[in-house]
Amino acid sequence: SVSGESGEIVEDVDQVTLYSYKVQSTITSRMASTVIQARVVNNSPQPQSAVFDVQIPKGAFISNFSMTVDGTTFTSSIKEKTVGRALYSQARAKGKTAGLVRGRALDMENFKTEVNILPGAKVQFELHYQEVKWRKLGSYEHRLHLQPGRLAKHLEVDVWIIEPQGMRFLHVPDTFDGHFDGVPVISKGHQKAHISFKPTVAQQRKCSSCSETAVDGELVVMYDVNREEKAGELEVFNGYFVHYFAPDNMDPIPKNILFVIDVSGSMWGIKMKQTVEAMKTILDDLRAEDQFSVVDFNHNVRAWRNDLVSATKTQTVDAKKYIEKIQPSGGTNINEALLRAIFILNEANNLGLLDPNSVSLIILVSDGDPTVGELKLSKIQKNVKQNIQDNISLFSLGIGFDVDYDFLKRLSNDNRGIAQRIYGNQDTSSQLKKFYNQVSTPLLRNVQFNYPHMSVMDVTQNSFHNYFGGSEIMVAGKVNPDKLDQLQSIITATSANTELVLETLAEMDDLEDFLSKDKHADPDFTRKLWAYLTINQLLAERSLAPTAAAKRKITRTILQMSLDHHIVTPLTSMVIENEAGDERMLADSPPQDHSCCSGALYYGSKVSPSSVPSWANPAPTAMIPMPVIGAPVVETTPPTHVMRVEND
Amino acid sequence: PHFIIYLPNSQKNICFNIDSEPGKILNLVSDLESGILVNGQLVGAKKPKNKKLSTYFGKLGFYFQSEDMKIEISTENITLSRGSHRSSLSWSDTAHVINQRVLVSVKKVRTVTITLDREMSFSVLLHRVWKKHPTNVDFLGIYIPPTNKFSPNTHGLLGQFMNEPKIHIFNERPGKDPAKPEAIMEVKGQKLLVTRGLQKDYRTDQVSGTDVPCWFVHNSGKGFIDGQYKDYFVPQLYSFLKWP
Lengths: 648, 244
What we know:
The complex is a heterodimer. In chain A, a hairpin with a 3-residue loop joins strand 18 and strand 19. Chain A is built from 11 helices and 32 strands. By secondary structure, chain B is mostly beta strands. Chain B has one helix spanning 218-221; strands at residues 2-7, 12-17, 25-31, 36-44, 55-64, 69-74, 77-82, 85-90, 94-99, 102-107, 111-116, 120-127, 139-143, 167-173, 182-187, 190-201, 210-217. The longest helix of chain B is centred in the C-terminal third of the chain and has 4 residues, at 218-221. The two termini of chain B are 23 Å apart. Classes of the chains: A alpha+beta, B mainly beta. Chains A and B meet through strand 29 and strand 32 of A and strand 1, strand 2, strand 7, strand 8 and strand 9 of B.
């Protein structure tokens, strides 16, 4: 047995002992890098299998893995998929496996390694992954899935958050049903915070005499940053820039929204029940100036109203009644359903019934592929593209795993929207509502990011159809170091018939001082964010590529970037080998799923970053005539130190 | 607040000041005909000095009726409302907001310029003081260049001078304080004792301003302005002045 410091018995003789389980996460301005390290000892007289099973967010990129078994160290390298597979097949490690498998929980996937160890042997696993924090509903959430599987002599979780803008709030909700009340220790400054979670063995126990661990869930850190300028925060560092844009303090723009709901037989049961529940809340949340309708479809297509109606109380009550009566049955005709919704919006637009300042959204909720009418997905995509007017954004929510998520993603990305996977379980309703709330408050339209004077290169998508309150748009790129010592940005956008031109400036060395002072800060965060955004956007563009040649070109770029930035993407694998190179494992991303759920709410487009729209250069105000020095019709209140005629 | 009125025909600067209670709203421009309104709300210093509490403009309201547009500028932020739609900027922003005929330009922690039809403009200057100053508070200045775009019946503490009154200044002589000459100014049928002094224009040099020599009218401008200053109090930031 192995006794911990306090003399407790950690494991009985024939078990593998978890000596330490350490998680270190650093968020440097939205870029999160996490390291999970576990050390186990085989205390039994028999060979044992040691499993290192870690859940990581689906949108994360794994960047490194190492394993030391009894002094033999396995390190990882990133290879193109076929190359990786070839290397693996040449020297399969005996009694050792590694791989990425589809996660069981929401938006998670598992990195799992299993190794057979001899009696008394020690193993250390260490995994590195990176992810971007997307702002949702007014805050960033950092989730660390803790699943050591057994009591750990040393269990230490440290999260550092470094945000140059300063943190508006930081909160660690109780996600362990009160079991670890008071254990997370938060120390927070203006721009930095540290959250430490280090339960003792006794605190880990499910109950005082239990040998199971209660550490099985997520440590969640929520925070938001201060925002002084409406033009957002421009951060330049190490040759890259990141631009964060999340203005608030403006009234929502009216929206015209069409809910297109799959009521085919496969929706029967909890899915329909949860969808109806969600729709009831969503309809309640519509604003009086919004217009809406509901299209429900199976092998037939129906509509609650064949035209848009204002979201008055009576209308939403009526729509709710309609939805409650739905009985799912029959096939799935996505094509007709979408065309009906598009027709309703187009018709309203053509008849001038839409507020010119409004935005139009379609939210498709479906749990399966088409089984009736047009079945060819590419044809459906083409039909939608040909019919939808460019003022409409299409969002697709795919429930469960029977729906071809890639199809929904292409469908939405092609039409100014995004797709999201929804899990068909008891919290489908909250997922649907959470998604709706992310797009329920359009604040700006036609948001374009410009960086004049040819000062930047390789800019990610910089033109977006909408901006929704509570979220954040990120744009990144390389800066032209020999150009300027400042980077200027001009953002143009429209808010309810008002054109906005927002300017901001960043010094090239603004962050030098700040980041150099903190040993946890990741000096590479701008480059990583840029790479992360670029690869994700390329992955989406790749699926929309019009020709095979274009697709190949994008594939080459993604592959090269994945290799350059040493990350596992759908095009690369991680080969894990010992020093001699005669024992190898292969960690491959799940074939078709990895492109799912990067977390980004926006899919924009690229326009030349130095093409400021003409209207955005308002003629400077006519120079104020000053016929007598300093003496036009003025009014001023000078400071008292000026000799002057005081009041009498 | 101190007022400097430039009279282009007589090429003279006339100045006066008004001190009242924090919270009071003074009408600066009231043009019912073209639907243009400018009001200023007073803010007081943190505490009196020499038993006298200085007041400044802490908030300015602009209303353009034809656009149904209100622009409220305080020392903290700039709020634009058009009909029921509202959005706000902060003094940390550098931005232009273009609303068909109205352009609002914010220059970070410096000026807000409001231009109507590219012809009429108003500039608002932010004066930020040391937060911990024992008496001073942030305040605003407003500048309205001469224009003939207002309607003839425009009124208000500033608006009334869009129609320039005739003045005649004579009998200039040393004043009680040798550094402050005095004179008689004949205006609107009255003879007022005026004193020579200096005011400041901060548009080019926001810190120390540019000297503006002027003839100071005492008694809160009485005799030079129509009626007396209390006549220009209005109840709300967007109330037109009822005159007479």
